[in-house]
Amino acid sequence: MNVVYTNIRRAAVEVVQGLGRYGVATVHEAQGRTGLLGPTLRPIYAGAHIAGCAVTVSLPPADNWMIHVAVEQCQAGDVLVVAPTSSSDAGYFGELLARSLAAREVRALIIDAGVRDVRALTDMRFPVWSKAVHAQGTVKETLGSVNVPVVCAGGLVSPGDIVIADDDGVCIVPRLEAQAVLKASEAREAKEAATRERLQNGELGLDIYDMRAKLAKRGLVFRPQSLTE
Amino acid sequence: MNVVYTNIRRAAVEVVQGLGRYGVATVHEAQGRTGLLGPTLRPIYAGAHIAGCAVTVSLPPADNWMIHVAVEQCQAGDVLVVAPTSSSDAGYFGELLARSLAAREVRALIIDAGVRDVRALTDMRFPVWSKAVHAQGTVKETLGSVNVPVVCAGGLVSPGDIVIADDDGVCIVPRLEAQAVLKASEAREAKEAATRERLQNGELGLDIYDMRAKLAKRGLVFRPQSLTE
Amino acid sequence: MNVVYTNIRRAAVEVVQGLGRYGVATVHEAQGRTGLLGPTLRPIYAGAHIAGCAVTVSLPPADNWMIHVAVEQCQAGDVLVVAPTSSSDAGYFGELLARSLAAREVRALIIDAGVRDVRALTDMRFPVWSKAVHAQGTVKETLGSVNVPVVCAGGLVSPGDIVIADDDGVCIVPRLEAQAVLKASEAREAKEAATRERLQNGELGLDIYDMRAKLAKRGLVFRPQSLTE
Amino acid sequence: MNVVYTNIRRAAVEVVQGLGRYGVATVHEAQGRTGLLGPTLRPIYAGAHIAGCAVTVSLPPADNWMIHVAVEQCQAGDVLVVAPTSSSDAGYFGELLARSLAAREVRALIIDAGVRDVRALTDMRFPVWSKAVHAQGTVKETLGSVNVPVVCAGGLVSPGDIVIADDDGVCIVPRLEAQAVLKASEAREAKEAATRERLQNGELGLDIYDMRAKLAKRGLVFRPQSLTE
Amino acid sequence: MNVVYTNIRRAAVEVVQGLGRYGVATVHEAQGRTGLLGPTLRPIYAGAHIAGCAVTVSLPPADNWMIHVAVEQCQAGDVLVVAPTSSSDAGYFGELLARSLAAREVRALIIDAGVRDVRALTDMRFPVWSKAVHAQGTVKETLGSVNVPVVCAGGLVSPGDIVIADDDGVCIVPRLEAQAVLKASEAREAKEAATRERLQNGELGLDIYDMRAKLAKRGLVFRPQSLTE
Amino acid sequence: MNVVYTNIRRAAVEVVQGLGRYGVATVHEAQGRTGLLGPTLRPIYAGAHIAGCAVTVSLPPADNWMIHVAVEQCQAGDVLVVAPTSSSDAGYFGELLARSLAAREVRALIIDAGVRDVRALTDMRFPVWSKAVHAQGTVKETLGSVNVPVVCAGGLVSPGDIVIADDDGVCIVPRLEAQAVLKASEAREAKEAATRERLQNGELGLDIYDMRAKLAKRGLVFRPQSLTE
């Protein structure tokens, strides 16, 4: 059955804002190395960094009808996450849909397929993470669903989850874990700041992380290169 | 037999100029969603947007001899389209060939293979759409043909066809259909301008495109998310 | 057995500097079209151009422990070259390791796997050529080796070899051949400068390279396109 | 946190048996075109057709420790479903693990990674659907989880779900929907049997499915090929 | 515009039969190394070898409606060639459509997309060359065209062309060149038979093809391996 | 410079025979998880298992001239290993070259590119591991080298090394390590035989390999699935 869920629960605004201060790598580590979507998703331009609540779309390959349906479900601060039911690199999304989302203050599109009008999207500064850039048009013939759990680029996304995206890719934080992940991100960042300074000053990770004994125990051998050649 | 066709018919200059005002997505839609080359072809730098007449080259894998032959067939406003007879990512083209094409006012290279010297090409602002960047050199040993129909990145290109390329990829307009496609592109752009304004003002595509009745008829269900979790 | 070779022989500084004046394509041609790593390695930002001596790391997939070990073996002017023993796109390297390498004046990272923190690496201007950008964390559990010969993106790299990298990719010059390749690069560049000028002035490669007789002998036919359509 | 869930609910034996009478294509259609894992999963030998209850494993790339843990959770009629947390083609599974699973009457392995010893697995008739065949060994160093929901080849698999696999690939039926999908599969098969006979007798799908009016309404034109060439 | 061309010209039966005696490699060479479709097309079972006249289908991604339309245009000895307008690995074709084609004595399907029911197709001995095996269902919503030229796996196929397919892949012979290619195939086969015998008897290709002088002229050096190691 | 090394040192016959008793997975493990070529190399038919001494060929993409040169350097028990200098899927090798190699009692071909005539090769039982099956012909124009070290499918192969290949892929054993690897393979096989029997009898790897304490120490939690759903 094809359903549009209309009043999804979203993560609290201050948690989303909080997570938005951290990059994808930090958040991914902070939640136990989970939640990353695959590296096939790339930003259409460098430098964007966003956080928002997922509105999800499951739709047929090469058919973007449900994106039009989903726009109505989006509100300020959301991120649209689109996943076709089988592999497709067609161009589901372009400038006009971006104008519509921008008018609703949607923050970004994540799509496991193609997009087009990337020059206009870049000029508008509407960020997109996609697996392809392709002008191939799609049809509007077959239903899908909005705000159901979807698998996007190999990761599971539920409506209302928090989406973090930057030049490293896209990370999903489950809504009910967001508060805890925020705390863990803050802690990780603080710890890394101290390490960063020591590394910049020339200390070695071998010493900072106290690795030498463990390496020796595992049997690592240090040896001068032989002189003959 | 290996042939160089020497006096190909080209599309009229004003039609090429006209089509050059529109992006790849617009032209592709205007000609009935045909003519796109595959999304494996990517620009070596962002922001280029060109239109010109195709001079085509069919050549053996990892052998660029016929590109040298083809240069002589190019004139101002042409676009060189190169397709190896089997898959290759070698670097068939670099700065020197670009200098030669630029001297003849050729507008771009489209190649279903690799190119090199991309820093120099970028500095020259000589645009290239290719499937790879690779410094691997090629030989000059085996003949091919110039100005025969070629399949490039999954699309058919005939000599004299119009090539439109931008950040979305590459679209081919058959020479004899170019005038009609230009008209259709103008019409599409005009229509989109009106839609764009309505979308920017917050109207929904659901309403602008009058989709609600059709969605209901197909059986789409709207439902509040259940409260339990 | 897992070994770290500690005092590798490096190419002479002046030879490395000399080769660093030439691009990857030139050096690759100058050494007889050998030494390129595959085109799957791409720079994380455009415009970097480096030369340095290879410190090599062979490590297990999704385990970056040996990178920490290798840092200690690096000195100013080195380039770290990392190759997992089976295919992986995890993110082995990020900002903190880059800080550590930068503190030692290491010039770049070449890695046949993924990296993360690419925004920070770009801001630091620490150049990386990688096959993926991916935030996926790695573990530190299993030994590998440092300064052994490795196969990286399909090319062989020995410790102390010279690494040249630019927007075209990565080229390896064996240490003992570096002096000869430098001379050949100088000669090639000089020759190309003369050719460049002739091509810019509109002379054809067909004439400059004296190809017409050879083409005719091979049987290439020039023919006007037929008038019927 | 790394957890092994130990007493998962499984679908009823008779439902699993029932679904096992139908192929992957039939079951996939019967449940509304959902549930397929991606076509990158291929059987290591042709002709196997299995149904069973999923025991799921989430593990680090190139580390098969958790498969050893999962064996203990398997019982007769189960299917082991293994998904690394990032892309890997290493060989996580071979003859010895297959012996262990076969001793527990496990029916198959589904793995979004590589396997080895495929000759021995074929001789044993232990069926495997994998994305690669690769002898590359893995380590046993890092924990994962057993019987948590996993994304495998782009599809979601929960412990206790029913796995159907044949030469067409792998389909997942959620445990709570299995009874309904079984009924729908029976209905579909019955309907197809009637259609099959009519098609074998030379009737056209155009007539059986009553497509002609709809095609005409959409504007399909039938036209003799022109005589000129 | 969407058109079905209804009375296409086909190659003469005896030419098709004649070409069917030769493998794909022979025919490809005999027509000057042209006409191959890409190696992404693989047979669903080993050992099939067919020749027939192409009935072509251009259709939207993930929509198989036009295959149903095309069946009516097929006659005994034809081969159905199907190409989506953008990349797709969905399963457009299965047992029921194969029954329908078999009832009309169609010899094979060539499809640049996915198929399903491969066990049943194999049991029926209905040969298929496809780029994927995937059970994913398609819709029947959008028109395409039948018997127009299509690009399939990177090669151009016109209706009425001869299709040769075996374990090496698929080769297309243009209808108007078929008689000449048949003669060239016969000649090539005869010549290879003589060479085959000499090679089996231990003569070297170096001598049979008289390569030694040319190799020496190009500068090939023969040298004993050095004794030190 | 292009060189053919003519009297390469080969591993001792009894060592080659000894290693030929073990599969690729066993030998790869026995030599410390090194030596595998990549999983892109697949056998053209199932069931072949060979061992022999490498005669290596480095050649240009889409040019098989050097294979003809290399045949003369082969003797009974050798395995031809072919690697193009840049990526290619053309068909470098077919039945005639196989006849020539078979006449010299060469055991197999390993090629990081395409082959053709796979039906005839299968009927002859001439085993090939390749990355593609493709009928695309190659030229004979440009020199390469024979019996130099080559990188093939990501692995290093030196002339005279031992090649082991079976349905799992291809493993290279350096000539000077072959005796030691043979011993280690024997030891591994003996140990696995004992383990195999225990696993077949239903003992768990968890107990045989004594993993429970280590798992507990790392923090693995066992927990019944919760009853609510």
3D structure, described in words:
The structure is a homohexamer of 229-residue chains. The first copy, chain A, is an alpha/beta fold and 229 residues long. Helices cover 31% and strands 25% of the residues of chain A. Chain A has helices at residues 13-19, 24-30, 65-71, 95-103, 118-124, 178-200, 205-208, 212-218, and strands at 3-5, 42-43, 50-59, 78-84, 108-115, 128-133, 145-146, 150-152, 155-157, 162-166, 169-173, 221-223. In chain A, strands 2, 3, 4, 5, 6, 7, 10 and 11 form an 8-stranded mixed β-sheet that branches. The mean pLDDT of chain A is 96. The A-B interface holds A 1-9, 45, 65, 68-69, 71-72, 89, 91, 94-97, 99-100, 102-104, 114, 116-120, 122, 132-137, 140, 143, 147, 159, 176 and B 23-25, 28-29, 33, 36, 38-39, 42, 46-47, 49, 166-169, 171, 192, 195-196, 199-202, 204-206, 209, 211, 215, 218-225, 229.
Concise description?
Six copies of one chain form a homohexamer. With 229 residues, chain A is an alpha/beta fold. The first copy, chain A, is built from eight helices and twelve strands.
Q: Which percent range describes the beta-strand content of chain A?
A: 15-25%
| Main pleated-sheet profile of chain A | 8 strands, mixed
Task: Kindly state the number of beta strands of chain A.
Answer: 12
Total of helices of chain A? 8
Shape of chain A: elongated
Order of helices and strands of chain A: EHHEEHEHEHEEEEEEHHHE
Largest interface: chains, residues each:
A-B, 44 and 40 residues
Low-confidence stretches of chain A: none
Category from helices, strands and their pairing of chain A:
alpha/beta
Overall residue-averaged pLDDT value of chain A = 96
Regarding quaternary structure, what we see is: homohexamer
| Terminal residue distance of chain A | 71 Å
CA gyration radius of chain A, whole angstroms: 21 Å
* Helix share, percent of chain A: 25-40%
